[in-house]
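QA checklist item 7 of 12: single-chain prediction sanity check.
[x] sequence parsed
[x] length recorded as 465
[x] structure emitted
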Amino acid sequence: MSRSKTPSDADPVAVALVHLGCARNLIDSELILARMAEEELLVTPVLEDASVVVINTCSFIGEARAESYARIEEQVERKRRGELNAVVVAGCLVERYRRQLIRQLPDVDLFCEISDYRDLAKQVRRIGSGHRSPGYLEAIERRAGDREDSRLLATPGSYAYLRISHGCDHGCSFCAIPIMRGKHRSKRLPEVVAEAAELVEHGVRELVVVAEDSTAWGRDLGGGQELPDLVREVADLDGDHVVRVMYAYPNRFPWALTELLRDHPRVAPYLDIPVQHAATDVLRAMRRHGSGDQVRKILDRLLEEVPDLTLRTTMLVGFPGETDAHVDELCELIETYSIGRLGAFTYSPEEDTPGFTMEPRVEAHVARERLDRVLSVRDSVLERTQRARIGQRIDALVDELHPLPGGDGWRAVARGEFDAPEVDPLVLFHLEPHESEVVGVGATLEVDVRDVDAEFNLVAEPVRE
């Protein structure tokens, strides 16, 4: 489709968004979509229907940057072919490299640092109407801890992410997030609760708490507030919802949270707690707080105080100085604590971080072999723990419904309380044609687990009594 005609102010401006990165970045994408809708732009999910494409980039590690650059080049090439009028780049890549990108990517029409995105939407309208753009939009200042503006949710109606803070104060030697996102700033409790209440009022059944460091929430606000106070307030809101906690940094863990994880009916007994490694030498090189023994003590206490707790974590392999013996410790920890819900990645040297010049480096092929080993142990644990659920009756929250060919009912994509969206296994089952009239997205129903598929998803059957 050619879009080479000259646009005017009278023409409607169709814009599409390419989202890259994590759940926190997805919230920024939802903010961008909402600001564009407020500018009366025609937001379309189909890239081929848009005259302007906005790319919200990720720059966490090298692979994420490579994907960002590749997606930018794809859209720039479409612009060269006359298939769209303009390409806009926003988000973490811009925040990381700022005006350097103007020289690197001269065919991009507008770059935008992380902001409230109002100016971005206004400039997209101008560009789409044939006017020149300033080329670069700076964030005047880091966003404070106020409530964020309305979002155009990109998640199913069943769940939404609830961001409780911005930035991070930790100095992990491998991580560039503080460079891009700044110091930690908690959103005030009334603002978070108001945002959560609005989401619940609109039918969201699961609020997924996210931040760069969720366990740091409240400490910069004064008054002794900590994460458990926020989780309790959100869980106690009127409505039929559950709260799930992600990105809980283990240092200075707020132990009052375990009572809520264990006893509160609206708090999922689930915790994402990124420990990054199990070997003390590696943790110290990473500038993580605590030792391998302290990591184990934290996990022991969590499982003692919350016996039904599902743990999720993140591991980093191939960090400078890591040895095979260190990876042995890592694999042992995964086995000992039955951590099947685990994300792992290889070390990426990040400019302007302490780890960038650290030696000795682990060769890329060795790091990849270690990653494969860690993931193999993870998969073994996950298969074992998932198969242990065969024969159980569980509650499943429906995230998606897909019609089957020939009108033969619906394929339901759901999750149990032990699975977070997008990163954990699913619960899959079949609905009869008429059942979709009473079982929609956001419904919770009882299912019997019958099997585990090749991707470790639970295969189930609805209870029909």
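[x] summary fact logged: DSSP finds 13 helices and 19 strands in the chain.
[ ] second reviewer sign-off
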